[in-house]
Design brief:
Layout: H1 3-14, E1 19-20, E2 23-24, H2 29-64, H3 68-87, H4 90-110, E3 116-122, E4 126-128, E5 133-141, E6 150-156, E7 159-165, E8 173-180, E9 186-190, E10 194-198, E11 205-209, E12 214-219, E13 239-245, E14 250-256, H5 268-274, E15 278-286, E16 289-294, H6 304-323, E17 327-332, E18 335-336, H7 342-350, H8 361-371, E19 377-383, H9 388-396, E20 403-409, E21 416-420, E22 423-428, H10 434-442
Parallel strand pairs: 4-12, 16-17, 16-19, 19-20, 20-22
Antiparallel strand pairs: 1-2, 3-5, 5-8, 6-7, 6-10, 9-12, 10-11, 13-15, 14-15, 17-18, 21-22
Length: 443
């Protein structure tokens, strides 16, 4: 049989015409392989997809129930059986059968199905550090038959809590209460609640999820700034500046009238006394606008707890500003925080993490000046390792006319006040002293 006739037959098999103008065309070997691959893909791909779907539906769930110890026992049984058959070792065969027997017993523990209605309820999804976070799990047997005792597993962050379910009749409800420790600021993922079936040796473990996860926000601890410490920003009058204006609230002086002045500002009593038109001149004011820059650079703090103190101090300032309906901007080296509501602000502050590779307080102050040019009061909340020279450089970045404060946080330090140029430096050693040092700041 000739090469051309072979090529024609292959062409007929592949469904491709190999004749042009009645002349058989010779098939190149590379083209033959490509055509064969296409044919194989046409027939093999659907079969492979069906095999994959079947594996995901039946094989993967079965393998997921085998624990690490179960795989070890199963593998050891196979190896021992092969050795026993190959070398005639009866002891190895007996050990292999024992391992297989243990696996069969484990299967009996995980077979069957349970139908539950599980409700995970957290009394509060947002608490402050130290406040109790209480929740409950209510389980209802929705099956038409009595179910055997089982266990429920509740992941709480990196840990897990185990709840034991008793033997439950149809429609019977079992409820458990639990308390989550809140000693540190964090976002804790609670759940999902899963029922667990396992044998005593934990060779097989079968879990079924009944609820979704819930986030518990442990907000930083804050302190109230009510009383004499509150209202240190004047909301109605604003803060006066050295810039003069022809129309504002804060009266400054009288001057001669010039064409174009608003006649509503003519001071008629003085005009009658002097015989010439005199108009009022005002100091330009601005609406109270607080900006808080919180440094997260761990190199600037003596201890990790000092960073927590700084976060709590910044959160307290922010809560007071929001409570008084003032404009507020908060910024860290990682970017701005949401300040629309106290809840959004505290949620963002709960997620904050310290770092060592981002900018210093000086760079943060420069970023704040660019990002919030209309601020009237600026707070720099920093660590105790920030030197006076660095604070002086940071204060130089703040526009003139803006009242600036720096709060240096050092746990256990004596509360105090100092001045570096136009910057008022406050030392904070305990969060409960924040209201007191704020009174010193506005004195």
């Amino acid at each position: 049989m000739s090469m051309k006739s072979n090529a024609a037959k292959v062409g007929e098999f592949l469904g491709r015409p190999f004749h042009r103008d009645g002349i058989p065309t010779q098939l190149h070997p590379g083209s033959l392989w490509r055509e064969a691959a296409k044919v194989a893909g046409t027939y093999v791909a659907p079969v492979w997809d069906k095999v994959g779907a079947w594996s995901r539906k039946y094989v993967v769930p079965v393998l997921a129930t085998i624990s690490t110890l179960g795989f070890v026992v199963l593998g050891a049984a196979i190896v021992l059986w092969i050795l026993g058959v190959s070398f005639g070792w009866q002891e190895a065969k007996v050990a292999a059968l024992l391992g297989l027997f243990l696996m069969l017993i484990a299967i009996a523990f995980v077979l069957g199905s349970s139908r539950y209605a599980v409700e995970l309820d957290l009394a509060r999804t947002r608490v402050a550090v130290g406040e109790p976070a209480v929740g409950s799990i209510a389980v209802t047997n929705t099956a038409t038959h009595t179910v055997l005792p089982a266990a429920l597993e509740l992941p709480v962050g990196a840990a897990a809590a185990l709840f034991h379910l008793p033997r439950m009749k149809p429609e019977q409800v079992h409820e458990d209460l639990f308390t989550i420790p809140t000693s540190r600021r964090a976002v804790i993922t609670v759940g999902p609640v899963s029922s667990v079936r396992a044998d005593p040796l934990q060779l097989l473990r079968r879990t079924v999820q009944w609820t979704g996860p819930t986030d518990l926000y442990v907000h930083p601890r804050t302190t109230a700034l009510d009383g004499p410490a509150a209202g240190f920003l004047k909301d109605l009058e604003g803060l006066t500046t050295k810039d003069l204006s022809n129309s504002d609230i804060a009266f400054h002086a009288l001057r001669d009238y010039v064409p174009g002045d608003d006649r509503r500002h003519i001071h008629w009593k003085t005009t009658a006394r002097t015989g010439k038109l005199m108009v009022r001149q005002f100091e330009e004011t601005r609406r109270s606008h607080m900006a808080v820059a919180l440094s997260l650079n761990l190199n600037e703090y003596e201890h990790d707890d000092d960073l927590e103190l700084a976060i709590s101090a910044a959160a307290s300032l922010g809560r007071q500003a929001i409570k008084e309906n003032r404009e507020l901007n908060m910024l860290t080296q990682r970017g701005p925080l949401h300040c629309e509501t106290g809840r959004n602000m505290l949620d963002d502050m709960t997620r904050l993490q310290g770092h060592t590779r981002r900018g210093t307080t000086v760079e943060l102050a420069r970023t704040l000046s660019d990002a919030v040019p209309g601020a009237s009061v600026v707070f720099l909340v920093v660590g105790s390792k920030v030197t006076a020279a660095q604070l002086r450089t940071a204060a130089a970045s703040i526009p003139p006319g803006v009242r600036a404060f720096a709060i240096r946080c050092l746990g256990g330090a004596q509360a105090g006040r100092a001045t570096i140029g136009d910057l008022t430096v406050l030392t904070l050693g305990d969060l409960n002293d924040l209201a007191a040092i704020m009174r010193k700041a506005v004195a």
